[in-house]
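[audit] Reproducing an earlier prediction to check determinism. Same input, same settings, fresh worker. If the tokens differ from the archived copy the diff job will pick it up downstream; this log only records the rerun itself.
[audit] input (163 residues):
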Amino acid sequence: MSGARTDADRVQDANTAYYEAMERGDFDALTALWLSDDRPAVSCVHPGWPVLSGRGEVLRSYALIMANTEYIQFFLTDVEVDVAGDTAVVTCTENILSGGPAPDEGEELGPLVGQLVVATNVFLRTPEGWRLWSHHSSPVLAESDDQGGSGDPPGGDPDGSPA
């Protein structure tokens, strides 16, 4: 028995399609997932990048990423979907595995690198379905060995005094 599809299900599908397009390096599919015009203006923040505004600038960033990434895979965790009228917000943790070009000829991929990123994807309902309005992702800072236990203030000792 299959139940009726909810808005949250459709947003989840659009969110999944976004990450699958990135994994396949399918720029056309990725382009189709973003709002088709700049009313309202789309925006994007990739980890460590400045805010990108406008459809052209955002899509150029993805073209650049796809051109310089041989392999990328997203394992999404902590996915939450909230829908309010014609707007939806998806928050998630992106567990990313990626690899660049091979350092030596004949090798398939360069070294694989893992990264943990938290993301917020904002979707807007359109006549064509749910489309990305904004993507914002930020790296999760790993605790270094010299910081000690959890809860220690950054750059200081556990008692709160500067290092």
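[audit] rerun output stored. Observation attached for the diff report: The mean pLDDT is 86.
[audit] end
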